[in-house]
Write a structure and sequence with these properties.
Elements (H helix, E strand, L loop, with lengths): L3 H4 L23 E2 L12 H19 L7 H15 L9 E4 L1 H13 L5 E6 L3 H9 L3 E8 L2 E2 L1 H13 L7 E4 L13 H14 L2 E5 L15 H4 L4 E6 L11 E4 L2 H10 L7 H11 L4 H27 L13 E5 L10 H7 L1 E2 L1 E2 L12 E5 L5 H29 L3
Parallel strand pairs: 1-11, 3-4, 3-6, 6-7, 7-8
Antiparallel strand pairs: 2-9, 4-5, 8-9, 10-13, 12-13
Helix pairs in contact: 2-10, 3-10, 4-5, 4-9, 6-7, 11-13, 12-13
Length: 409
């Protein structure tokens, strides 16, 4: 029987599917290779505890007001100084604190896109970004990645064709150039320069999601796209991967005119000002680079354990790019494989992963799977990959047996 609630018409732009990348399984022995979470034992808990106490004791009454106390400005100054280490020069009025980098993606979409506008993305791409662009009612076009990141040559060909045929060019290109989620690849310096040139020539923005850049396992340096063409880049980063995701704090760096428009859309005013007070207390005197070095050491070891386990358990049934940073290994199975078909069976056996189709704007990517090595222990990684292999080979045997049965004698 229908209720008034059932008959109500909600906005059509609300996504039809729930958030991706997690699981509702709560069994204590379940292995969550799907979670793109930071390692909890590396959170600076003791320092945060002291910082929270100091924020209340020293600035509590002001810190709990809408505008906070001195913390928000200190955070802006910290972001400014840390960005300079990576070659980004920005004034304080070019920096805006956000609720994680995901809010930055949403703000960029709402600032730049009207319904029917075009946005170009990598294929695969971060599923929450795809969700934001769908919600903005954009037309999404995808371009593949390879071991050197986004195929900028194919993107350039599409721009040339659009120019010749008077077709729409994108309002912006969304990219995760460094330690891509989920692909693990990094955009080469040559392609970075060419992409910046194209943005200038064709007058579009680049939304640069740089969430994993601090987690650099190799020591190789790649210039943020922002350093190449700052007037055409909206740069996003986050504290989620380097301090703790529960803080829900990230930042946007862009031309002041862009930031001013973003502030107009941020109806709540200042972002998490009391959390900023705590974080400001933490970062004051905190050995940040030493902390990042610990993260790099741990996550690089986790990556190696997972890569070895995948090679041992799957052999030539999968291929993958060994990431030089970040959280993920992106498995590619044979063209005939659909990882969604054994997702549930793997879950029943005790391991979760994210199937490939979730990272594509169009129905494709079925032969891929994303595994996260950051959240679980080394023992869980090995056991989880073994369980996943069991689920895959059972699926493959059933698939082949079914095909054999159907073939004529």
């Amino acid at each position: 029987m229908s209720t008034p609630f059932d008959l109500f018409s909600f906005a059509k732009r609300i996504p039809a599917t729930p958030s991706i990348g997690s699981t509702t399984v709560t069994k204590p022995d379940h292995i969550h290779l799907s979670f793109g979470f930071a390692a909890p034992h590396l959170f600076p808990i003791e320092q945060l505890s002291r910082a929270a106490y100091e924020a209340v004791a020293q600035h509590g009454r002001k810190a709990l007001q809408y505008s906070g106390s001195g913390g928000p400005r200190k955070i802006l100054e910290w972001i400014q100084n840390r960005s300079f280490v990576h070659g980004i020069k920005a004034e304080l009025n070019q920096i805006m604190v956000t609720y994680g980098s995901t809010q930055g993606i949403d703000l960029a979409a709402r600032m730049l896109l009207d319904p029917g506008d075009h946005v170009w993305v990598e294929s695969p791409s971060f599923f929450s970004a795809l969700q934001a662009f769908r919600t903005a009612e954009a037309v999404i076009t995808s371009f593949p990645i390879d071991e050197d990141g986004l195929r900028v040559d194919l993107l350039e060909n599409a721009l040339l064709e659009a120019g010749r045929n008077n077709k729409p060019i994108p309002k912006f290109i969304y990219t995760m150039p460094t330690y891509h989620n989920p692909g693990g690849v990094t955009l080469s310096n040559e392609r970075r320069r060419r992409l910046a040139q194209l943005a200038e020539t064709y007058n579009f923005f680049i939304v640069e999601d740089d969430a994993y850049s601090e987690l650099n396992f190799s020591g190789r340096k790649f210039p943020p796209l922002y350093t190449l063409i700052p007037e055409r880049v909206i740069y996003l980063n986050t504290f989620s991967k380097i301090i703790g995701p529960g803080l829900r704090l990230g930042w946007m760096i862009a031309d002041k005119r862009v930031i001013d428009k973003a502030r107009l859309l941020n109806l709540g005013g200042s972002i998490g000002v009391f959390t900023q007070e705590i974080l400001a207390q933490l970062l004051d005197g905190f050995g940040f680079q030493e902390h990042v070095d610990q993260l790099i050491l741990h996550y690089s070891e986790q990556r190696d354990v997972m890569a070895e386990a995948v090679q041992s358990c799957f052999g030539d049934h999968v291929t993958f790019h060994l990431p030089e940073g970040g959280f993920y290994i992106w498995l590619k199975f044979g063209e005939h494989i659909n990882t969604s078909d054994f997702l549930r069976d793997a879950g029943k056996l005790g391991v979760s992963f994210v199937d490939g189709k979730s990272f594509f704007a169009e129905p494709e990517g079925y032969q891929y799977a994303r595994l996260c090595f950051s959240y679980v222990s080394e023992e869980q990684i090995v056991r989880g990959v073994n369980i996943l292999a069991d689920a895959y080979f059972a699926y493959e045997e059933q698939r082949l047996f079914g095909l054999t049965k159907q073939q004529p004698l």
